[in-house]
Amino acid sequence: MLYELFIGLRYTRAKRRNHFISFISLISMLGIALGVAALIVVLSVMNGFQQELRARILGVASHVLVTGPDNSLAGWEAVTERVKREPDVVAAAPYINAQGMLANEANVRGAIVRGVVPQMEDQVADIGKHMLTGSLGELRAGEFGIVLGSELARALRVGPGDRVTLIAPQGLVTPAGLVPRLKQFRVVGLFEVGMFEYDSGLALVNLEDAQRLYQMGQNVSGVRLKLEDLFKSRDVAASLYRNLGPDIYVSDWTRSHANFFRAVQIEKNVMFIILTLIVAVAAFNIVATLVMVVTDKQSDIAILRTLGASPGSIMGVFVVQGALIGVIGTVLGVILGVLLAVNIDVVVPFLERLLNVQFLSKEVYYISELPSDLQRRDVLTIALVSLVLAFLATLYPSWRASRVRPAEALRYE
Question: Does residue 270 sit in the same domain as residue 314?
C-alpha cells in the first residue's frame, strides 16, 4: 500500500484532539449524502412525471401523423398499406379531425370531434383502456353514437343514453340563408385519460358518421401511426416524407408537443443545477475541515518532510483524507436515494398518513400519485458530480499542507 494512502486512512480513522474538526467532517459527509439522495429522488420523480405525461398524451394523440392538404386525405387505404411497410410501424388508423359545438338544452361546449374506426383506433390509441362507461365498439356506422370525455360530459350534464346535438361549422345554403349543419348523437360512452385538455374537449364518433356530417365523402383528415419505439418517430417521419410524395404532410409527436416536453426537460435541468449546489456547499465544507486538519497536523507534516517525503506526497495524504469523506458521503447518498426512489409509492402515502395531508389532491391534480422512474444514467451522473466536487474541495488545503516548512513547524515543539 502506498504510504500516502496508508497515512491518509490512518488520519481519517484516528481520534482527534480537536473534536470540532470531527464534527465538521461528519456534517460534510452527511451534507453530501443528503444532497446526493435529494438529487436522485427529485430527478427520479421528474422522470416519472415526464413518462406519465408522455404516456397520457400519446395515449390519445399519436406517434406520427400523416395528413393531406387542407385537412383532407384521399385514398387513405393505400396510404395505410404503404406506411405499414415501415419496419417500426406497429399499427395505423384513419381519422377525421374537425371542430364542432355540442349542445344539450342550455349547456353548450366547443369540442374537437374525431371520427375513428373503433377496431383500428384501439390499435393506435389507449382511449379504450380509459373508458369509464361503454366502449369504442359501440360507435357503429349509421347509428350516430358519440363518446365524450368525462369533463365534457359533466359540463354538458349528460350521461350514457342521453342525446346531444352536434353543430358543425360547415353550413347549408338555403333560400332562407346559411343554415348550420346539426345532428343529434346518442352518448354511448365516457372516457377519462387524466389530461384536462382531452377530457374536457374531445368527442369521438364513427368515421362514416363524421364523413357524412362534415361532407368529406370518402376522404379523411389523415392516418395516425403507432410505432414500436416512440423515440424513433423523427426517423420514421423523415422516411415517410421522402417516400409518400410532396402532397403528403408528416409530423411526429416531438414536433406537435415540442414546447411541452422541452419545458419539462428544462425544468429537470434547472432542478439538477439547483440541487447540485446543495452538494457543492456540503463538499466545500471539506475545505474548512482539511484546513483545520492541516493546522492541527503541522508537526506531523514537518516530521514526514524531514524523513524525505516530497511536497506531492504530503499533498496526496490530505487528498486521500478529503476524498474519503466525499466517497463515503456519496455512497451513503446513493444508497439512501435509490431506496427512496424505488419505494416512493410507499414512503409518500406513509408521510401523508403521518402528517394527515395529501400532497397531490385528486380534486386539483390529474396525477394524484408521485410516479418515480429511477434511471441508471442519472444515478451515475450524480455520483460522478459529487465525487468531482469533493476532489476539487481537497486541492487547496492539500496544497497548503505541501507548503509547510519543517523548520518553522518544529521551532516550538
Answer: yes
